[in-house]
Inverse folding.
């Protein structure tokens, strides 16, 4: 089976977005990149600082509410639908909930051949 989706999981500034772009340049067919940052930019502004949406505290703590989770699930399934058409997708995400975040993608991408990549930053 041919890989249909590549999931890059890396923290902020880990290089996952740059890696996604580099992969697009070297893979033998066109691949679309979908990043969680772009998804967050599509949210209504009122949801980016609401208890039921997405809230980033001054100390960097991220809290997500039920409305955000519902929209995020719809986004995941939409990205998976694109992969099911035969278009390769590169997903640039941050698993805030660790294994739970990965499981949410596993559910959305069920039946697809997925390459899972952890992007880590090492101190110099």
């Amino acid at each position: 089976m041919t890989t249909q989706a590549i999931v890059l999981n890396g923290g902020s500034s880990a290089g996952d977005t740059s890696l996604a772009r580099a992969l697009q340049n070297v893979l033998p067919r066109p691949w679309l990149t979908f990043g969680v940052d772009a998804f967050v930019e599509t949210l209504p502004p009122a949801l980016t600082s609401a208890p039921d949406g997405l809230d980033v505290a001054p100390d960097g703590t991220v809290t997500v509410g039920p409305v955000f989770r519902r929209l995020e699930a719809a986004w995941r399934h939409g990205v998976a639908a694109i992969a099911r058409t035969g278009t390769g997708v590169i997903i640039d995400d941050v698993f805030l909930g660790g294994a739970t975040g990965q499981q949410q993608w596993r559910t959305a991408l069920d039946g697809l051949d997925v390459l899972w990549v952890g992007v880590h930053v090492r101190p110099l």
